[in-house]
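Quick one:
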Amino acid sequence: MSTDTGVSLPSYEEDQGSKLIRKAKEAPFVPIGMAGFAAIVAYGLYKLKSRGNTKMSLHLIHMRVAAQGFVVGAMTIGMGYSMYREFWAKPKP
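Output:
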């Protein structure tokens, strides 16, 4: 028993760049979280050679916690922004 009616919908192929731009407009704090994560990881790798007497595992744990904290903070602020935009900034009909 098939439900195919023979009607084909035009397929819309979206490339990665336009998809990222569309998602960034829908949730602007996602790219901010991604950029912050990348910046903290880059900073951690840069500081890896000059960590002094700090153990490698401790340095990596600190960098992981900092990166995760930034991403969670960006997600929290983004969720608050989405709630504001949906419930309070929306004009009432």
